[in-house]
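JOB MANIFEST
job_type = single_chain_structure
chain_count = 1
residues = 334
[input]
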Amino acid sequence: MIRKNGDAGHPRATGELLKIRRASPLSAAAVILTLGIAGMARAETAPVGVPDKSFPESVTSTSDGTLYVGSFNHGGVTKISGGKAEQLVKPGAADSRSTLGVLADEKSGTLYVCSNDISAMGVAGPSDTKGAWLKTFDLKSGAPRGSFALSDPKSFCNDIVVGADGTAYVSDSFAPFVYSLKPGGTALATFATDPQLAPAKDGVGLDGIAIGADGNLYVTTFIPAKLFRIEMKDGKAGAVTELKPSRPLDHADALRAHGGGFLLIEGNGKLDKVTVKGSDATIDIIKDGLVEPVSVTQVGDVGWVAEGKLSYVIGDNKGKDPGPFKLTPVALPK
């Protein structure tokens, strides 16, 4: 998502203030698809193009292989299916602004979207809505369903996961909170908070979020890069435990359930497999050398990685041409 001062080639963070510039307006004609996605999930061998200069921050998918991509600078959500790209959620729809985390929940037919006002960072966004919000849209039509404010004035809505009972959990990067939204709920509730989850000085806090095979909630913090388990029992949060990775992590970003473990994005170019045993987390690299990855979603035996190139909207590459944007397919281990 955001990188620390001095990290070459990646975005910077100075506390809660980022220096970002707004990119040029999105043109539908600029959507470039380098490879069509088949109607059914299958392994792909080439990247899929996403809207030009849209700086994707998150990607999600449905079981038929359809991909949904947000835009850090333009907002909205693009749907890519069957070799075609369409604007499912228009920039500014339902008073949304810059789009970060996106999550497709097929069971409820809901697309969850993290929307943030980052105008103080230099990105005006497509509306005038203040604050951080969880927005919900119809997964098929893109029609607005709901809008839910994050409570803290410093809040920054980052990512979402949905539990088996339909409860959505939301990570807050600039305040030490995980929020929850029960089916039919009208407002977010604070599900978990702990000093360990607070952003460090000149850092960025909660980022990726996933539910493990053990039924517990797992989260990452971005700067410094850490992994935590939040125990869940009877719908309530329990102890928060920092996990011990088998090697140091670098900018721990998106986290997705995968088999009995997780897929993890590291901002320095890695897609990892994470296996948790007790308080230990074994980190195995699946692929290195990705270009500023920010998120991953699984379709069949393929992980689709969004390469956000956020250093070109903030950081050392600001003002340079980021080139085309793409989702990169990576074969996943069994």
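[summary]
The mean pLDDT is 87.
The longest strand covers residues 98-105.
exit_status = 0
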